[in-house]
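REQUEST FORM: STRUCTURE PREDICTION
Request ID: SP-0412
Submitted by: Lab K.M.
Chain count: 1
Length (residues): 89
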Amino acid sequence: MIVLTRLSGSAFVLNADLIERLDSTPDTVVTLVDGKKYVVAEGLAQVVDLVRAWRGGIIAASTGGEAHAWAQRAHLAAVPSTVATGAED
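STATUS: Completed
RESULT:
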């Protein structure tokens, strides 16, 4: 959820998952997937930054607070090979 400001100055909270597109006409217009539109005081780049920060927070929360934990697990590592001879030395 992101906090945006109407042109009248009142703040509201918007579910960023419902955003279909943003337009700058020159006011910033947020269009939702159901066609509803909101004209907001924030600029286009600022709304994009708010959405990125919100989604980044979700990723960080899902990895136990480690924002880059997924990157640490996403690599391959060498595993030492062991040869079983069947007899102990």
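NOTES: The chain has a mean pLDDT of 84.
Reviewed by: T.R.
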